[in-house]
Design goal:
The complex is a heterodimer of chains A (359) and B (296).
Chain A: E1 5-16, E2 19-30, E3 34-38, H1 45-53, E4 60-65, E5 68-69, H2 75-78, E6 80-83, H3 95-107, H4 122-141, H5 157-169, E7 175-179, H6 187-204, E8 208-212, H7 215-221, E9 224-229, E10 232-237, H8 239-244, H9 249-254, E11 261-263, E12 279-282, E13 288-289, E14 295-304, E15 308-315, E16 320-326, E17 337-341, E18 347-350, E19 356-357
Parallel strand pairs in A: 3-8, 3-9, 6-7, 7-8
Antiparallel strand pairs in A: 1-2, 1-4, 4-5, 9-10, 11-12, 12-18, 13-17, 14-15, 14-17, 15-16, 18-19
Chain B: H1 2-35, H2 53-60, H3 62-96, H4 101-116, H5 119-129, H6 136-143, H7 158-183, H8 187-196, H9 201-212, H10 214-229, H11 233-239, H12 250-260, H13 264-293
Helix pairs in contact in B: 1-13, 2-3, 2-13, 3-7, 3-10, 4-7, 5-11, 7-10, 8-9, 10-13, 12-13
The chains are: A alpha+beta (359), B mainly alpha (296).
Chain lengths: 359, 296
């Protein structure tokens, strides 16, 4: 996994007018690696991706491709593949021509791209035959062979996404950047596509960078996650590290299917002595109803989700809390009080600056 | 019961417009077609059927053919020139709109002025500009050491002068349509083209801009075509079809025959030919081009 760095940003800053979109960001994408760039919308992650691809020029800092400085290079010179959130397929040409476009643009000159020129020149004929082989191979890999003659407008969203993937993969890119690839898909297709993109990554060995606002996409797909908040990368680490040892309170609250409970310092001392000085975070899944638990709370309401039930609770000092019960657990009556406990290993302490403190 | 009520509602909603269309569009067309087979003159008490004589007159006579050919030459210049220039100007203004929004807006207004202005008033201004001895254009030419010309009274030039004015007048309209078309092209397609290896503006134009402008171009072509074949105001106000019918066009001939000489039958035949030609032209454009510009 820790191969040579393929694509990297060094202290890159990008401003649009007065607004700083990307603030002193450094990021490495290593050979064969799958990195997720995770952040809320508007945090600068898409701009970071465009800077890597060469669609935006950096304000300050440098971009490296396999050790070479490519800061001033255009997108096509960097040979980075990018899959767009909107897919950005060319609507006027067929699926085949969409997939062939990157190869035609790179390997045929303007003159040789004219229709009918292959009848006149043998080398052009060979290039076109070679392109044909590549297009059909990648189309078979993504199971869109039968769709090659259609126009993008005749395809479903999932099919269009495969075409966009094929167009990005057809030319052996130096790195593969995906901009929110799953956000336009329904739940079922989403799960399938996650698996598929993972498999595609294994198969091509190409470094992948996934830009997403969805923490579960990042956790389930990536080898490493870079969390971005307000234009800065605040933590980089494995999904386990990001989930279990968030470096900042903001990261802790962002990661996780259910938002982490934060018990303010003072009342948090009920759970752990460190709670006297630090805020304590505990995930709703880690709270359990325990007759002899240290924390007494009132049940405000509950929501049944099938495999789990989410309780909305309120502590004595009015701090709102949430707890997740297994679907088959007995739900306490609304308005009643229960006692909660949490294992020591599930507690996260944060100081006044929001930085993690080791317990 | 409900069916009847719906029928009444439908009739009440669509009826008046349908009736007006029948009365003011379809009926007159039928009358014109019928008249074109007669020798009817305005004010006459009777008429005779002359079968296709009027059509034979139009296509067979020197004057009829002259008007047709003049109109075709005029259209052959005005259509490509005003569509091409309109696109060129739109591309330029669109490109500078981000860096120099003020300049772009001012230029856009300037190009659009001829569209907003009354053509008859503009024709008077053109007449003064083109005046052989007093006009600015000949004065500028002589300042450059070039010979002046009789722009509106030289038989070999007058049609091209009118065509140039026709282009001047329609470039602004086409530009505005193209600008709207350009604004609707998603940025992500240009990004995709850049990532795919389109290095030059030339590549980007042919891969993204031109195909994405297809529907706009079709519309612009149809509108420009119809306007070019309908050329009338400049001819009527500036040349009267002269000198010696050198700038006679179909619609001007139609006006002259119908409203000056009161030959309603002959004028109707011209109208029918003109109408038919426009319908066929538009149909061809839609059938042939439509399939290639709406990517469904």
């Amino acid at each position: 996994m820790n191969g040579a760095s393929v694509l990297s940003l060094r202290n890159v800053t990008k401003q649009f007018g007065d607004a700083v979109a990307v603030d002193d960001v450094s990021l490495d994408l290593h050979a064969g690696e799958f990195v997720a760039l995770l952040g809320a919308s508007g945090c600068g992650k898409s701009t970071t991706l465009r800077l890597l691809a060469g669609l935006e020029q950096v304000g300050s800092g440098q971009v490296f491709l396999r050790g070479a400085d490519v800061t001033g290079d255009t997108a096509s010179a960097r040979n980075v593949a990018l899959m767009f959130q909107s897919y950005a397929l060319y609507p006027h040409v067929t699926v085949y021509q969409n997939i062939a476009m990157p190869l035609r643009l790179r390997r045929l000159s303007v003159v040789n791209r004219l229709p009918g020129i292959r009848l006149l020149r043998a080398p052009v004929r060979n290039t076109i035959a070679d392109i044909d082989v590549k297009v059909r191979r990648v189309a078979d890999m993504l199971r869109i062979g039968p769709l090659l003659a259609r126009k993008p407008g005749q395809l479903s969203g999932g099919q269009q996404q495969r075409v966009a993937l094929a167009r990005a993969l057809v030319r052996d890119p130096s790195a593969f950047l995906l901009d929110e690839p799953l956000s336009n898909l329904d739940t079922q297709l989403r799960a399938d596509t996650r698996d598929e993109i993972r498999a595609l990554h294994k198969r091509t060995g190409c470094p992948f960078l996934l830009v997403t606002h969805d923490q579960s996409d990042a956790l389930s797909m990536a080898d490493r996650i870079a969390v971005m908040i307000a234009g800065r990368i605040v933590q980089v680490g494995s999904p386990e590290t990001i989930f279990n040892r968030p470096r900042l309170r903001a990261v802790a609250e962002f990661i996780g299917h259910n938002r982490m409970n934060i018990l303010p310092r003072g009342m948090a001392a009920a759970l752990h002595p460190a709670g006297a000085m630090h805020d304590l975070g505990v995930r709703p899944e880690d709270l359990s109803i325990d007759r002899s638990g240290p924390l007494e709370v009132q049940v405000e309401s509950f929501a049944y989700h099938g495999e789990e039930t989410i309780l909305r609770l309120r502590a004595a000092d009015a701090t709102p809390l949430r707890a997740v019960l297994r679907g088959d657990a007995a739900v306490p009556p609304q308005g009643g009080t229960v006692r909660l406990s949490a294992p020591l290993s599930a507690l996260h302490a944060f100081d006044t600056a929001g930085l993690r403190v080791t317990l | 019961m409900i069916g009847l009520r719906r029928l009444v509602t439908d009739l009440a909603l669509a009826g008046p417009a349908a009736l007006a269309m029948m009365l003011f569009i379809f009926l007159p067309v039928v009358v014109v077609v019928v008249l074109s087979f007669t020798d009817y003159q305005f004010g006459a008490r009777s008429f005779d059927w002359v079968a296709l004589d009027n059509y034979a007159d139009l296509l067979g006579s020197r004057h009829g053919r002259n008007a047709l050919i003049n109109t075709l030459i005029y259209a052959a210049i005005v259509i490509p020139a005003s569509v091409g220039l309109g696109l060129l100007v739109a591309l330029g203004l669109h490109a500078i709109a981000r860096t120099m929004p003020r300049v772009s807006a001012v230029l856009r207004a300037v190009y659009f002025l001829p569209v907003a202005a009354t053509l008859v008033a503009m024709a008077v201004a053109w007449q003064m500009l083109l005046h052989p001895s007093l006009g600015l254009i000949n004065q500028w030419l002589s300042a450059l050491g070039l010979p002046g010309r009789q722009w509106l009274s030289d038989r070999g030039i007058v049609l091209y002068t009118l065509a140039a004015i026709g282009v001047w007048q329609s470039v602004g309209y086409n530009m505005v349509l193209f600008l709207a078309g350009l604004a609707a092209i998603p940025r992500s397609l240009y990004d995709a083209a850049a990532v795919d290896g389109a290095e030059t503006g030339w590549d980007r134009f042919w891969i993204v801009t031109w195909p994405m402008l297809g529907p706009t171009t079709l519309f612009v072509m149809i509108v420009t075509c119809a306007n070019a074949f309908r050329v009338f105001e400049t001819v009527a106000t500036m040349t009267g079809g002269g000198p010696a019918f050198a700038s006679d066009t179909i619609v001007y001939a139609l006006y002259r025959e119908g409203f000056v000489y009161f030959k309603a039958g002959y004028a109707s035949a011209i109208t029918v030919v003109f109408f038919g030609a426009l319908v066929i032209l538009t149909a061809i454009q839609i059938v042939v081009v439509e399939r290639r510009v709406h990517y469904r």
